[in-house]
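Quick look at the format.
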Amino acid sequence: MTQGYDGGAPDGFDAARLALRELVLAATVRIHHAGAGYAHDEPGSFLGSGFFVAPNWVLTCAHVVHAEEGGEVVVVYRTSPYDDPCAVPGQVAATLPEHAGRLVPGSWPAPDLALVRLREPVGHACVYVSERPNPHFGGNRVYYAGWTGARGRLEILDGYLSVQGTISAWSPEEQVRLGQNDLPPGVSGGPVIDPVRGEVVGVLKSRADQGAGGTSIGVEQLRTLHRSDGRGDGTEGNGGHTRGTFPGPADPGPARHADTAPHIDHADHTDLYQAVFHAHDRYHRDRQQPSESAAPTWADIQGELGARPGRALSPHERGELLGRLADLPPPVSTRALLGILGSLPGFRLPSLVPAPRGWRDGLGVLYEHARQDEARRLVVGYAMRILLADRDRTRSVLAAERALWEWVWHASTGLDSGYRTELAQQREELLGRERDGRERAGHERADDEAGRAPERPAQHPPLAPPGPSVLLVVLCRGWEPDRCDWSVSVADADGGTTLLHETQRTALADLDARAAAALTEAFRQCDEPGRPAPLYVALPHRLLDMPVDDWRLRPDGVPVGVERPVLVRCSDRDQLPDEAAQGPGAWPAAAWEPYDDEDGERRDRWRRLHTRQARAEVLDCDDGVRRPVPDTPALRGLAPHDVPVLCRLGDQRYASDPASLGRILNAGFGVAVWRRRRWQPESVCGEFHRGAKTVVDDGVGVALLPGVVHGLRRQVHAGLTEAYWAHGIALLYDDPHSPLPGTGDLLEAP
């Protein structure tokens, strides 16, 4: 180990250390007992500490949470000293090792790690976790943080500890001995940080029985987690076991006919290690994008500290590379990853325990073991070999490969011409594979760019198999803006409609409660075992964002959007805003000529969208920077297979925001995706962009989007963290060939 800071800090170094401290404390949480009777602001329910390693994932010690019945805990956090603490339920997803804590009461041998996933999505800060192969440190001290209730009140504390050596080196029981500071009860599970490099390297495990200090476990021990599907990952025999059943704590019930939602994370959801660290690396990549937040990021502070993750990359370059690698499927096995590392010319692969498991781990190996004059060449070569690895190449994977190639191309500009020529030849091989993949999928590059493609028959009906559906029509009363008229009817598979109920002058705030009985009866008439009828909700264009899918028809029931597909339609197309007189927006000219007849344009868009592969088009956000939704003439210029996506709907700081969905409807679109959330400057939207593009671009057709969205809602409700990007997702699915009965006046009774 190199010597630590000796007092000769450059200007700004102390400020950077203070900023690093704020980042650590913002991500450090306390863990409490779950269940009634426990107050989460009192020491009596306090179990120990933990910290956010990825969105909605907490890392802590197994001994902190292992005794909790059902693995249920409560995580309490706050992201700044000015915020009130927030309590959110969590469940233990895995422990390392699983069985040992039952052998000796009160003990838990190393690795003594646990992953807790939140039961609902929240916004919070995350630490930066080192990708190095073993707990290397830039100095002879580490920084730690944790919570304690030792003095009768809950408080967070932090400080420095000296590094005094290791215990059981090269084994899953390896621990780092720490000293020269007292550790009070409760800090176990807190983060251990290398203050020179500005990254988390371990987890506080224990405090000394006598004297100061304690021990910590390196974060690399998480590589020993087993896959819960039994496939293994090349690390069998390292002692890792999962606890419980992943992915979710709640069984969402039997599969429904429309539940076709894919698990959009390329890291199979049964592999916690890949899922957590892919989310970690994408989070830190997205935090580097332009945003409305002025808060420094981990890469910013690492740069101010003068840290370099390796000889080849700056902290920002590393974050960008890791984020692009996290968009790709993970290595098929540890053996395959070791093969890639071993194929790098002039690189001697060291023996490591535990072995590298993900793309990020391989990069960490190169940091530590590459010669200085070869480091950048090896990193570029490593990224190129990852590009050339065999994998299924869907649209989103092809886009991720292109993004990684851009990084390789820019990173190789300082290398010699012969090496650049070799990279260009390898790129040609990759392009050949890409062309083959596009041909197999029926999506040629020229058609993609021009917005044209050979039409093909629709493969699926809108909801397969077809059956009855329920229709809720809501109409505004212009002279009473806080009240509405509404009706509930049942539509059979042939399009016939039967009115069940109609009511006038209902307060919008009471609509969910007033409509519950009528909807329950309609569903009772339509549902079949394992096949819940979809609910179409026709809303005025100003109310299209009403969260009907969150309604609960009975106090002990699940949200209706979890129970069945909930699809949005527009009930007042005759009142849509007219922007035809406005100038063109800052968007490309039309790739096709729209019809003069608006109904004809709607039908044509619907037909084209259902006869070729769709493509998601994010309209209101550009890499984290808000932009206004284009006006109607500009929206008409989008290709007929584009599906509009909005990620910032509800940002009330912009006067044009409430009318954005109306403009999309006016441009002839019958399918659109958005999310309902209160926009905050600290929010990171990259996961929503990625998820929306994946389910639309890689899906099996727009006709099955209703089932895909339904499945995502069920996954969010069940606590599958990889689906949390879809929290609040909504789908406009407004078929122009199925006009709403009685639109403009209430349905007539049969």
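Next, a different chain entirely:
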Amino acid sequence: MATFLHRVAHWAFRRRRTVVLVWVAVLAAVFLGAVNSSEAPEDSASLPGIESQQAFDLLDERFPGTEADGAEARVVFVAADGQQVTSTANRSAVDTLVDEVADGPQVAGATSPFDAHAVSEDASTAYATITYRTTADDLTEASKEALTEAVERARDAGLTVEVGGSALETEPAQGIGEVLGILVAAVVLLITFGSLAAAGLPLLTAVLGVGISLATITALGSALGFSSTVGELAMMLGLAVGIDYSLFVVSRYREERAKGHQAQEAAALAVGTAGSAVVFAGLTVVIALLGLSVVGVPTLTKMGVGSAGTVLVGVLIALTAVPALLGFWPDAVLPRRDREGPRRTRGRRPGRFGRNRNSSGNRNSNGKGTTPAGTARTPWGVRWAQFVTRRPVAVLLLTVVGLGALAVPSLNLRMGMPGAESKPTTTTERRAYDALADGFGPGFNGPLTVVVDVKGADDPAAAVTGVSDRLAGTGGIVSVSPPHFNAAKDTAVVSAVPSTGPASERTQDLVRTIRDERPAIESATGAEFQVTGTTALNIDVGRKMQDALVPYLAVVVGLAFLLLMVVFRSILVPVKAALGFLLSVGAALGAIVTVFQEGHGAGFFGVEETGPIMSTMPVFLVGIVFGLAMDYQVFLVSRIREAHIHGEQPGQAVVTGFRHSAQVVGAAALIMMAVFGGFMTGGESMVKMVGFGLASAVFFDAFVVRMAFVPAVLALLGKRAWWLPGRLDRLLPRVDVEGEALTRRALVPNNASGDDDRRESVTV
């Protein structure tokens, strides 16, 4: 692997103009494809294999001309203090609004609260239901404006009017996630490298990769069903991994230049070593993302495929475009003092990452940061690694206990899909939700839709009545609506209102009770029925995600274990990597539950309402974080193994690995945290949850697991960490991630500049 990538980088460096033109041509081609492509589809809520979806499909079949997920607006009227909505003036204002909206475009029906008995007992609150013939995504601006104007006129009449439902759903406030991530990344890179060019190159290549990936996703959106959500995730991951992969190659290039190699050979060595780690780190991310298909949710599968493609583009750019760009400006990425010319640098090793050091690894008196007396200041990564290797037991116990304690709240994880109750109080949906809960009870916002199939019943009307009566007699149900039959009179829909809110555990128990009692009800009535609606759908999705989590973990961890065993030629190192990942993801889930479910510190993060954790969040977090965690595992441990292969004792190999990679891994983690954390600036609670979860997981994994847990375990295992049974050693392919074959070569530096197109002489 290392030798092959070494040759690729030599070619890219020599043919740098060709390489750059090819990437620009690819960007132009996919951009043209995106411009001329059909509009991308909206996110699909289809979830095959769950009862709620089957009921929706039955509604679409038996009620032709209407869509089960058609847009709906629930207009809530609240009278002023001391008044009632049934008063003459207020009733007139309500009726006027209903009549105006009923004649609007795309409206299927508008039901007055006085005709549907939708008035609270104290007559302070009422609601009108407006249904549309199309989905919320297909509503025209004219339809939305007609409803908005009617609402404003009712407000002018003195009523408090709010609108819930999907018809006028408020778009969440847009954050500055991408901009903030890039700005923080630029600052971190500038501090790490001390060079504008070195800081700008990873940003440039990351933006190039994201541009190609987003344009490709847009171009293929119609054919493959990629929605806008696929592009958003791809952009978030593309920025993070694209910057990181280029960062590792550029830092290794500077290190090789500091050892005296000319630019072309330094670029080739950087790609042959750090690039090998990039390849296998990228493969682990791809495995984790493609593994989302195991869950069985089409939307997650598409998100995984689109994001995996983005990661692959980032890997290819790091292996080809980065050495090509280094060929154009071979010295620009070096620190200023190393660009001063040979006379200023003769007699010392230049470079921030490769300064002259004594046998213990400390900088000599020529290095930056030494005292006037010449006493070297040891890099922080070396000092920390030495501390951990001297006290591995204490560090290991503290790490495991600390992360374990943070993970404890995850045992109380409740999954669901937050609705209007999680929106800010500044939105009309949230105010409508609160008004309905106050006027009609908490369960009114989460009714259960029961689809009754009476195709085989002798007396369809009696069968539906029997089902309704049994539902009304179920504990936890406060009311059941009159049945609504289709034209063929073989299917009816009834709405059952629970006594508890849609996110309540008691509501989940109620849905389970109704389904458990179904055989007896169907036997007594001769009708079949299914429970659906938003509340039941959220419950079913949560259960599906929970059931899929363990198989998904098994597939992803198993495949990654095999890959890491090939990379490190060890059994215990992949086991350690998997255990460390479980600690970090457990702590991240615990932090999410603490903030977003239990509400501790919620105000600090701008979370106005707590509730169940988004159903897809645990699986999503596991997939993304596992791939990113293996990035740090490969980059850090490959340098430790490289030092061990070259003859260093296990403890010293850990120190050497940290000397070369701790600073860069830390910078990479900060960049990822900035990219993910930037998404918390948006107004949507679910987006904040994703940003918070990913940022905290990266923090735990990079700064706790990889910087403390990993070196402590390696120090305790010693040489046993690299043990591999002889038979397995012969069976596994050798990929040479550490570049061992390259180090056996005696490099003969030529006197040409870094822009010389001739390949340097090599003797084996």
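Residues 342-375, 746-764 have pLDDT under 50 and may be disordered.

See the schema section for token definitions.
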